[in-house]
Amino acid sequence: MTDVFRNRPGYALRRAANAMMAELARRLATIDLRIAEASVLLLVNDRLDVTASEIGRTLDIQRANMVPLLGRLEDAGLIERRPIDGKSQAVLLTTKGQTRRAEADAITDTFEDELLQRIAPEHRDHLVPALGALWRAD
Amino acid sequence: MTDVFRNRPGYALRRAANAMMAELARRLATIDLRIAEASVLLLVNDRLDVTASEIGRTLDIQRANMVPLLGRLEDAGLIERRPIDGKSQAVLLTTKGQTRRAEADAITDTFEDELLQRIAPEHRDHLVPALGALWRAD
DNA sequence: ATGAGAATGCTATTGTCAATAACTATCCTG
DNA sequence: CAGGATAGTTATTGACAATAGCATTCTCAT
Questions:
Q1: What integer is the mean pLDDT of B10-29?
Q2: Are the C-beta atoms of residues A43 and A101 closer than 8 Å to each other?
Q3: Domain ranges of chain A
Q4: Helix axes B9-29, A95-117, angle to 10 degrees
Q5: Residues A123, B130: C-beta atoms closer than 8 Å
């Protein structure tokens, strides 16, 4: 079948993202994390007083979708919620969460290294800037 | 918040694909098509005797998921199914389907042009090859 | 020519991520 | 202190994808 879509940036983007996410999901499943959960863990460690809504804004996850996400992480004993004031709550990693975060970090790091290795050297360094332009324009 | 993910190819890929698909979905909605439906329409016109399973293989859509997809296109009067033998069936565009396909083609073409325009010239030509390497490796 | 295995189409269900709307309670600011 | 913004929540929906299982038909090697 003629590869009608070979040169279509939109289609290539969709397929590449799909393949990438499928593989990453498979790898993260070995430590019982979904992609969205792992990204939250990776983010949280960076600060000590991150609120749920702040995480949502950074990762572009709607407040409504943060609720079950954080709920699962809490049920798994990976995060704790601590009230900041009557309205906001800080999200922080438990000891178990820190361990899991380190594992997730290792998995995603090696995965992304491998991803880049698949790209011909002359294209490699252009990928992230090009993607950045697409994502931040929306 | 520190942008922990700024330089992560996996994350950038996910976000870019997401933003792209959201916008494309919005544009295709004006002609009552989902992204997956549009890609089938675009593909079908290219040949006259494409079978459902062949479409699925090309677009990486599982047989099980092709069923409702083609069902919707048929309900909308855009495609017809014609038995090839007792087992396979050809998918072909109705007149209405050809018109719709042309509209979808126009929308996706200008959309993808605009996408590329958002990327700095020095990165632009590297995007599709880089994505291709990621998608075809999986 | 036939019998085994592959291919096709289908049903039904599940999962992941995301979007929307509506609600409550709290906060911040003028 | 009143009004509007913000935080968290509930519930529902949608799009795309994956899995398992089933019936029929085709194909190919013996």
A1: 96
A2: no
A3: 3-118
A4: 80
A5: yes
Q: What are the two backbone dihedrals, phi and then psi, of residue A14, each rounded to the nearest 5 degrees?
A: -65, -45
Please write the tens of the pLDDT for every residue from A34-57. Answer: 999 999 999 998 777 899 999 999
| Closest residue to C25 (CA, C1′) | A87
Cβ proximity of B91 and B50 under 8 Å: yes
Contact B13 A131 (CB under 8 A): yes
In terms of C-beta density within 10 A (0-12 exposed, 13-18 middle, 19 or more buried), how is residue B30 classed?
Answer: exposed
Residue ranges of A 38-67 with Cβ closer than 8 A to chain B: 39, 42-43, 46-47, 50, 54, 57-60
Predicted local distance difference test score (pLDDT) of residue B7:
85
Q: What is the pTM for the complete model shown?
A: 0.92
- Report pLDDT digits (tens) over A68-93: 999 999 999 999 999 999 899 999 99
Q: Which fold has domain A3-118?
A: Arc Repressor Mutant, subunit A (1.10.10)
